[in-house]
Amino acid sequence: MTTETPLAGAVADDAAAEPSLFSTMSTMRAMRRLRPDPVPDELLDQLVQAAVWGPSGGNMQRYEYVVVTDRAVMAELAPLWKRCVDAYLATTGKYAPEGMDEAAYGRMVAAIEYQRDHFADTPALIIPCYQFPPPRIEEEGLRIYAEALGAEATERMGRIQERFSALAEGSCVYPGVQNLLLAARGLGLAANITIWHLFLETEWKAALGIPKDMNTFAAIPVGWPLGKFGPVRRRSVTEVVHRDRW
Q: Which residues lie below 8 Å from residue 179, measured CB to CB, with a gap of 6+?
């Protein structure tokens, strides 16, 4: 007779859970064709709960989530979505990414256009928001900061401060967004992350009553899929890994 320690049991449980998690990630395609059937509020709350569990820099937890399910509000957003998608497809989205054949890209564009044309029927839309509090930095702290970085890096940081702040906020938001997408896949829901709304962010904020000084980081349509989940197509690990140095 053997006695299993609590730690050994936890390790065994983790090992058993791993294949399921990896299977979820490997079949988490962007699903843009959605059924119009509503998604229960309790499932949407589960998605936001998963997002809240995501890492947050400095544990500030300054995220907010706007969850849209009202048909009238979605109908108001549909023309904004169309304008943003049309702007994308006419510019960045006009050509297939390198390494993607034209037929596959054509199918992706068709799904994007389907989502555009049926956006008013989207069951739910989630907008993750974040805003850092005003910085609290005193003169002595700035002196040490400059000494630690050196003159050249301090001057460079002054030039890229806006980008640094945006990336810092994004690093607090997007881990939660990934949790949300994983949770959606685990619950059998279709979801995909987009940032096209940023083309008309002012108008989106006005339509949703989001404060002007709050930053939005994605617009995530959620619903029951019309199609089936399948394996994602990504570059192999051997193509993207640089061991120890580039």
A: 50, 51, 53, 54
Judged by DSSP in three states, 222 sits in: strand
Question: Collapsing DSSP states into helix, strand and coil, what is residue 66?
Answer: strand
CB distance 192 to 81 below 8 Å: no
Quote the strand ranges of 122-231, DSSP E.
124-130, 190-191, 215-216, 220-223
The residue to which tokens 């619903």 are assigned: 223
Task: Give pLDDT tens digits for 164-178.
Answer: 888 888 888 999 999
Please report, for residues 96, 184, 233, 246, the alpha-carbon distance to residue 141 in angstroms, rounded to integers and kept in the order given: 48, 43, 47, 34
- The torsion angle over the Cα atoms of residues 32, 37, 40 and 45, rounded to 10 degrees, is 20
pTM listed for this prediction: 0.85
